[in-house]
Design a protein that fits this description.
By secondary structure, the chain is an alpha/beta fold. The protein is built from eleven helices and 22 strands. The structure holds zinc ion.
């Protein structure tokens, strides 16, 4: 088999297969994937030994140990399963903790990625003839922006690569080119939507916002306050999408907007407990993905470090593939304060919906026994009191958390200084 031959045709996407057909397809692809891992990846060659995959079922996956970013980073080279001259793109996965991992993509992987994003965009209703404004970077060794661009092309839609640019520049593009869809980070799209409204710039051409990096739903699948603010600022539908560089697979919401769909031919999704045991649908645990049909750096049971849950009931859109709910938090960001376990997102939810707060960030500190949190805020107007916000935080978290007011400039500088995405959690805890 020529491992570089393209096998990803959007006309043959299997999004609407039934549960049994998905199981059969995934079993076949999984066996092929495991064989490829053992034969070509030095890491998995050592790990899998003479494991017999001929009768291997999806339920047997739990017999194989999980892997994570720390292992991938430490043994980076051992995960590469192709000769150097078959690598077409080298990216780095962004990490909030530890060293960045190098990810090698082959021609097959880039083609697979284009297909992955095309299928995701299609589930959100984008198709041929749509103009898609991309407000994310396509370079800097990140894969996401390139994946969106390739996905738009693969779908037969038109990409407008305005990237990370000023509000004025995006406003000009929207006026001139009338995109039907925008891909971007929701908190940025909120700023852009408010800017357009304040300047009386017509944005009614935009019918869909594809939102990356920050969830739009809460744990009960209700639209979050960030999602509500987007709906107020735009006359567009909002779609959440979840992905990472390592899993090379995205989970994008459909028109029913109740969780991101797994492309069943591209990955197997598990939610696992601390020891790596799979948890039932609806249970909260670590999002763990086995990406299928990858050749450059194939992975088995990759623990993403993100905490979420799976929904396996058939969707109103007609797809039977499992869905992923909103990411509740990063495993590494889990806080233990006076016996309460909580993720920073719980505080974000309150702060996002507080009309007094313009911008904010959190700092965690502690020595490993009990964590401490302090919230830093910039207010919309000088002189507003913070009592109401503090009460809301206490009601949500049952914790009394100190808050400090800072000038807007200082807070924004901190939030937007370290990453392409806004960073609102700073972890100063001793390991
Ligand atoms: Zn659906």
């Amino acid at each position: 088999m020529n491992r570089n031959a393209s096998r990803f045709d959007t006309n043959q996407a299997c999004s609407f297969l039934g549960v049994e057909a998905i199981r059969q397809l995934q079993t076949r692809l999984l066996r092929r994937h495991l064989k490829l891992c053992r034969e070509h990846s030095p890491y998995y060659h050592n790990l899998l030994g003479d494991f017999d995959f001929s009768g291997f079922k999806i339920g047997d996956l739990a017999r194989i140990p999980t892997t994570d970013k720390a292992i991938l980073s430490e043994k980076n080279d051992l995960f590469t399963a192709v000769p150097e001259d078959e690598i077409r793109d080298i990216s780095f996965s962004s990490g909030t903790t530890g060293a960045a991992c190098r990810i090698n993509y082959t021609e097959n992987d880039l083609d697979r990625l284009a297909y992955n994003d095309a299928v995701g965009f299609a589930s959100a209703g984008i198709g041929r003839g749509d103009r898609v404004l991309l407000t994310c970077t396509i370079d800097r060794c990140f894969i996401a922006g390139l994946a969106y661009y390739m996905g738009v092309r693969k779908l037969g839609a038109t990409a407008i690569r305005n990237g990370i640019n000023s509000l004025e520049s995006h406003a000009d593009i929207i006026t001139q080119l009338k995109p039907s869809s925008i891909v971007g980070v929701p908190s940025f799209l909120r700023h852009l939507g408010i800017f357009l409204k304040e300047n009386k710039i017509d944005s009614t051409c935009v019918r869909r916002l594809i939102c990356i990096g920050e969830p739009l739903r809460d744990e009960n699948m209700e639209t979050s306050s960030l999602g509500k603010q987007l709906l107020q600022a735009w006359s567009a539908q909002i779609f959440s999408t979840y992905a990472s560089s390592e899993i090379v697979t995205s989970f994008t919401e459909c028109s029913a907007q109740c969780g991101g769909h797994l492309p069943p031919d591209l990955a197997i999704l598990e939610i696992v407990d601390e020891s790596g045991n799979p948890l039932p649908s609806g249970a909260i645990g670590e999002v763990t993905v086995t990406p299928l049909q990858v050749t450059g750096m194939p992975l088995i049971r990759f623990r993403t470090g993100d905490i979420g849950f799976m929904i396996d009931k058939p969707c109103r859109c007609g797809r039977s593939s499992p869905r992923i709910g909103p990411i509740i938090g990063r495993k590494a960001h889990m806080l233990k304060i006076k016996g309460t376990t909580i993720f920073p997102t719980a505080f974000f939810t309150v702060l996002d919906s507080s009309p007094e707060i313009a911008e904010y960030y959190l700092e965690a500190s502690g020595d490993g026994l009990s964590d401490r949190v302090e919230i830093f805020v910039a207010l919309k107007k000088q002189g507003i009191r913070l009592d109401h916000v503090a009460k809301r935080i206490q009601a949500r978290s049952r914790l009394s958390v100190p808050m400090r007011e800072l000038p807007m400039e200082d807070v924004r500088k901190k939030v937007f200084s370290t990453s392409r995405k806004p960073v609102r959690f700073f972890d100063l805890r001793k390991a």
